[in-house]
Amino acid sequence: MAEKMKLDVKKTLLIGFGFMASSIAWAIYDPYVSKLLSEKLTDSTFIFDLGQRLAERVPFLTKLMEAQGEDVSIAGGGFTLVPLFVGIIMTFDNIFGVIFQPFFGKLSDHTHTRFGKRRPFIFVGAPIAAILFILIPHMQTVPALMAVVILFVFVMSTWRAPVVALMPDLTPPALRSEGNAIINLTGGIGGLIGMFAGTMLCMIFGFDSKQNEERPYVFLLGATVMILGTLVLAFFVKEPDSRLEKRAEYASGEFDKEKAKKKEKEKLKQLKLSKPERRSLLFMLAGLFFLFAGANSIQTFFALFADEILGKTTAQATLMLGVFGLASMASAIPAGKLGTKFGRKKMILSGLIAFIVMFGLYAITKQMWLIWPALVVGGAANMFITVNTLPLVLEIGGVERVGTFTGYYYTATFSAQVAAPIAYGIVRVLSGTYMSLFVFCPIAFALSLLCISQVRHGEAIPAEVIKEAEMQGD
After folding, report:
1. What is the pLDDT of residues 234-263, one digit of tens each?
2. What pLDDT digit, counting tens, does each position of 43-81 carry?
C-alpha cells in the first residue's frame, strides 16, 4: 500500500503570506476609506445638492439608508444621501472583482514565464497596489481620492485570483482542503492585524485617534505587509517554470506550428466540462452566492442588530463578532482535515445545517443567551464551509484551469457581497426590525444548502490512491 501523502505545512504557510497581504489591505480599506469618503463627500456642495434632489424624488432611498444604520440627517434639519454615495463607492471592490478577477484568473492559466503562471501577476500588482494604498489618505479632493481608490481596487483585482490559485497549483488535489485551511488562517491573521492596526499604532506611538493622526501610518503598515508578502513569495516560494513544456518540444525537434495549434485545440476540447459537471458547477456557484449573501449580512448588520435588539454598544458588538471570528480561526485546521477525511461536500452541508439550526433556533425562541452559542457554532460552521468550497470548485475545473475557476468562485462570492446589503436593507425596511436578520440569514443558508446538495462533482481522489497508481505506472 502506498504511503499516505502529507501536506507541506511550511510551504503552504509561506504561500499564505500572499493572501495575508491581500487580507490586511481590505481590513484597513473598508473602515478607513469609507470614513475618508464620507468626510470628502460631505464637504462637496455638488454631492450635497444631488443627494437632496434624489431624496426628494425617491424617498425610499432615505428609508433604505436608515435601515442600514446610516444617519441621513444634517445639522439644522434636512437630510443627506452622502452615506448612499459612500456605500455605492465602497462596492467598487466587489464589482471590480466580479468583472476582472475571472479574466485575470483565466489569463494566469495561460501565462508562461520563468517565474511561473501566478507569481508575475503578484510581482507587478502587489507593489503597485501598495504605492496606491499609501497615496489614499493624502488625497485632498474628491476627484483625486476617487481616482486613486478606483485604480487601487482595479490593481487589487489583477492579482487576487492568481495569489489564491498559487496554493492549489502547488498542493496535491486531495490535500487542498487542508491547504486552504492554512491559507484562511493566515488570511484571518492578516485581517485581525488590519482591523486593530489603528489602535495598536495609537498605543505604541501615542497618536491622537480623534485627530486621525494614525491614519497615514495605518495605510503605510498595510502597504509594508503587501511588499513583505511579495518578497516572501519571490524568495521562498518556488513556482515551476511554465515554459518548460514548450522548451522540451523545441529541444526534441518535435515542435511544429500547425501541430501545436491542433494539439492546443484538442486540449481545449478535452478541458470542456461535461453536462453533469456544468450542472454541478452552476449549482455550486449558486450555493456560494446564497451562502455569502447570508454571511455578509451578518457581518454588515450585526452591530445594528446588537444595538436595537440586544442593547449592546458598537464596541460590545465588535467583541461578539470577534468571538465569531476566533471560533472560525480555531476551526480552520480541523475543518481542512475533516474535509480531506470525510469529503468536502459533507463538511459544507454540515456547516450549513449547523448555521440554520442555531440561527433558526434563536429566531424562533428569541432567547438572548442563545446568541453566544449561535455565534460560536456559526463561526466554526463558517470555516467548515469556507475551507472546503474553493477546493471543491477547483476540483470540478481540473488542474489546467485553477486560475479560471478561482475567478468563477470570486464572481459568485463578490456578486453576493454586492447584492446582500441591498437585499437585506429592503427586508429591514419592510419588517421594521433587525430581528429579521436571523430570519433572512437562515433562509439564505437553506437556499445554499438546497443548491449544494445537487452538486455531484468536486471530491478529490485520495492522495494515496493517486500515488499508488503512479507507482504502478512506473
Report:
1. 999 988 887 775 555 555 555 555 555 555
2. 777 777 777 777 778 878 778 777 777 776 665 445 566
Residue 146: partners with Cβ closer than 8 Å, 6 or more residues away: 89
Domains 9-247 and 273-473 share a fold: yes
Helix (H) / strand (E) element for 183: namely: helix 176-195
Q: Where are the domains of the chain?
A: 9-247, 273-473
Handedness of CA 50, 52, 54, 57 (dihedral sign): negative
Give the CATH number of domain 273-473. 1.20.1250.20
Least confident of 207-216, 261-270, 395-404, 434-443: 261-270
Whether residue 168 contacts residue 176, with contact meaning beta carbons closer than 8 Å, is answered with yes
Give the dihedral sign, CA 143/148/149/154: positive
User: Collapsing DSSP states into helix, strand and coil, what is residue 163?
Assistant: helix
How far, in Å, CA of 87 to CA of 85, rounded?
Answer: 5
Measured CA distances, 92 to 72, 150, 220, 415, 432 (Å): 22, 7, 22, 11, 29
For residues 12 and 183, what is the distance between their CA atoms, to the nearest angstrom?
Answer: 7
The residue among 49, 48, 72 whose CA lies nearest residue 60 is: 72
More confident residue, 48 or 190: 190
Inter-residue contact 165 to 403 (CB < 8 Å): yes
Q: Which of 169, 162, 171, 180 is nearest to 122 (CA)?
A: 162
In the CATH scheme, what is the homologous superfamily, with its name and number, of domain 9-247? MFS general substrate transporter like domains (1.20.1250.20)
Whats the size of the chain, residue-wise?
Answer: 474
Q: What is the C-alpha to C-alpha distance for residues 309 and 158, in angstroms, rounded to an integer? A: 41
Q: What is the pTM of this model?
A: 0.82
Q: Helices 437-452 and 402-431: crossing angle, nearest 10°?
A: 150
- Paired strand residues for 79: 73
Place of cell 425596511: 429
Question: CA nearest 160: which of 20, 19, 14, 25?
Answer: 19
Give DSSP secondary structure letters for 216-262: HHHHHHHHHHHHHHHHHHHHH-----TTHHHHHHHHTT---HHHHHH
CA pair distance 366, 21, nearest whole angstrom: 40
Q: What is the DSSP code (8-state) at residue 399?
A: G
Q: With residue 397 as reference, give the H or E element that holds it.
A: helix 371-397
